[in-house]
Amino acid sequence: MRAAVLAGWQVAVRIARAAIGVPDYPTYLAHQRRHHPERTPMSYEAFFAERQAARYRGGGGRCC
């Protein structure tokens, strides 16, 4: 029961973050591992700053 509640909460948080434009660091890490294993991923702080800059300058910021 507790695991189901936790999983539901995590999904709700991910949806809420996507709705308000907060970047999803775990998804970024999974993408990096899958598509760019030779690259060192950014720290959370660097990732957040880069995503905010891309959002407010109007750039897409997608690599693929």
How would you characterize this protein structure?
With 64 residues, the chain is mostly helical. The longest helix is centred in the N-terminal third of the chain and has 19 residues. The termini are far apart. It has a domain of 41 residues. Helix content is 69%, strand content 0%. The model has no long low-confidence stretch (mean pLDDT 86). Pfam families: Sel_put.
Tell me the helix content.
55-70%
Biggest beta-sheet profile: none
- Beta strands, count: 0
- The low-confidence runs, each spanning 5 or more residues with pLDDT under 50, are none
Q: What share of residues are in beta strands?
A: under 5%
**Mean pLDDT figure:** 86
How would the global form be characterised? globular
| Coarse structural class | mainly alpha
Distance between the termini: 38 Å
Q: From the alpha-carbon coordinates, what is the Rg to the nearest angstrom?
A: 14 Å
Give the helices and strands as they follow along the chain: HHH
Number of helices: 3
